[in-house]
Amino acid sequence: MSQLKTLIKNLGPGLLFASMAIGTSHLVLSTKGGAQYGWVMVIPIILANVLKYPFFEFGIRYTSVTQKSLIQGYLNMGKGYLWIYAFITLISTFTILAALYVVTSGLFINLFQIEADIGLVAFGLFVFISALLIIGKYQFLEDSLKAVISILFLALLVTTVMVIHKGPVADTTNYVAPEIFNEVGILFLISLMGWMPTAVEASGWVSLWTIENQNTMKSKPTLKMALQEFNVGYFMTALLAIFFLVIGWMTLYGTGTELSGNAVVFADQVVGLFTTHIGNWAYILIAVAAFATMFSTCMTAHDAVSRVSLDVLDKLFSKTSAFRHKNAFSYTVLFMALVNWVVIAAFGAHMGNLVALATFVSFVMAPLIGWMNLKAVLGKDIPKEFKPKKGLQALTYVGMVFLSLFALYYCWMLLT
Which of 143, 306, 350, 364 makes an SS bond possible with 332, Cβ 3.0 to 4.6 Å? Predict the structure, then answer.
């Protein structure tokens, strides 16, 4: 019991990882997978979570042992590695946040049925979330997300139980599911597995959260405790993906419903179909679960992108003390909010193209990031007793091959 209390008290990086990961990959892709292809989509979801696990685990491992960020680990291996990670971060900085805030703003408008300009709602969210991050800092983020994730988990658990209890929405006896292994199906699999649970470069984010978590603790957790905490968050991420899959399968599979490719419209469709299947009384429950999913993702991603950008700049230009100023994080949060709001205002109509660019870079670079993470934890910075076991190393190589094949096939699909 005392170990359980200690684990709950230490919840931090793993919790933030779960909050950040359960965004569009879960709300849209997992639900859509269940809706279009049925229960069989549980296989690629589990496969992606298992094969990508080592890359994220190494971020926790490296920082827990060395007390340094994974970004510092890249620099120790050579500045070229850091420039690679800086390039990926630059692309993400000006695309991912803008896309997340647009989806969340659209959800807010659609789910709570208000009339407002999406850019204005996004501006309000930027101001509100920036204030929370600057005033509350890491401790508030961690504490608030314990409540948000708890509400989200309970809402999704109740919704999943209800849809399972009610059973499939329609008799699917004569329904013919679309092909999984044709061009459309393969592209969907690439999107689902490529973003499940999230992009591999987020390993650097959990590393920085680990440092912040250690700074808030009276006594630093051991590597074992840090990994246990992360594993709880990682398992929760995978479980919530399966919840969304089951909900999509039970409420949409076999209906022949044409699902929108737009995340905001799709979420509105899903909520509408949920209430048709379960009852109008469940609307608020599902609306809160959907909005909490995206709001928590916005908050954690905004925090992570700000931290990682600041850390990368500090490591690249170490002679510039401005990046270590006591208010540097606050300025970076505001800068990210302003720049991404400008991106929304200026490129809103072409947001899909910007996200496609970020997706392409993330997919193509993922095997390289995985290899860099393995190289960091096998390097001289980590004592032999704390290096990953042979089994985890083997899983890492399998994951690297898996990600490489995905990246190559993705490039081939785009070029043909």
Answer: 306
Cα separation, 367 vs 111, in Å, equals 38
Q: Is the pLDDT of residue 244 over 80?
A: yes
pLDDT at 415: 78
The pLDDT of residue 82 is above 50: yes
Q: Is the dihedral of CA 50, 55, 56, 58 positive or negative?
A: positive
Q: Rounded to whole angstroms, how far apart are CA atoms 403 and 412?
A: 14
Q: Per-residue pLDDT tens for 131-180?
A: 989 988 777 777 777 777 777 777 778 878 888 887 777 665 677 778 88
Q: What is the number of domains present in the chain?
A: 1
Domain that residue 262 falls in: 2-415
The pTM assigned to this predicted structure is 0.87
Q: Answer yes or no: are the C-beta atoms of 36 and 256 closer than 8 Å.
A: no
The DSSP output letter for 28 is: I
Interatomic CA distance for residues 237 and 22, integer angstroms: 6
Q: Which CATH number is 160's domain given?
A: 1.20.1740.10
Identify the CA nearest to 356 among candidates 237, 119, 190. 190
- Cβ pair 74, 372 in contact under 8 A: yes
